[in-house]
Amino acid sequence: MPLELYLDLFSQPCRSVYIFAKKNNIPFDFKQISLLEGEQYGEDFGKINMMRKAPAIRDGDFTLAESIAILIYMVEKFHTPDHWYPSDLQKRARVNEYLSWQHTGVRIHGSKIFWLKLLIPKALGTEVPKEKMDSALEDLDGSLKLIEEKFLQDRPFIAGEQISLADLVAIVEIMQPVGAGVDVFAGRPKLSAWRDRVKAEIGKELFEEAHERILGAQEMVKALDASKLQVFKPRILKLFL
Predict the structure, then answer these.
(1) Does the global pTM surpass 0.85?
(2) Are 11 and 25 in contact (CB under 8 A)?
């Protein structure tokens, strides 16, 4: 029986799980949910993940949440190529180092840009003050510098010569503000070259398929019913105020 993957490709962690499963020919049933529509709060999804977040998986009677846990579960269950999560102690440590840092180190800043540029103006009917946007962009810039100078340095990929889970998790996060119209790669030749290597390793077609929805976000948000964002009001006010 194939895995059931509960995903919304609007979400960065969902994209990492989707790309990894497809790239490694892991059989799965794609159970698409819409986070913006609030489908994660439905009774059926609650049986899969009581934390009401995506991604989530079901493997027979076993369910699992959290993208990093899901990725490692797939690595170990399906014995994927070693480079994704290296058996070499120090290479694996490099992967773990990035995976431990990224959630608060870059995800929070890329997601914030996406909300400030697209979702908050839609929900509140007003643009975010320039100083708030500038501060968020400065925070993101600091994270991108760390990816270049600390995590990549002079290596082709984060763990060395081959792509790993660290690169996969990094690229989906960095593409999120791109979906909001912020070209984070402009003026960053090292980051741009790394993106091109990651894209080539994933495969252009799969990379573009996984990111199609987020790269169409600006048009999608224009057509979105703003009332559907009210479920996120506490988060919106926290970011806006």
Answers:
(1) yes
(2) no
Dig out the tokens for 189 from the structure.
């030749």
Which residue shows structure tokens 């070259």?
193
Could you read off the pLDDT of 6-31 as tens digits, one per residue?
999 999 999 999 999 999 999 999 99
Residue 25: both structure tokens together: 């020919």
Tell me the CA end-to-end span of the chain in Å, nearest whole number. 48
pLDDT in tens, 185-228: 999 999 999 999 999 999 999 999 999 999 998 888 877 776 66
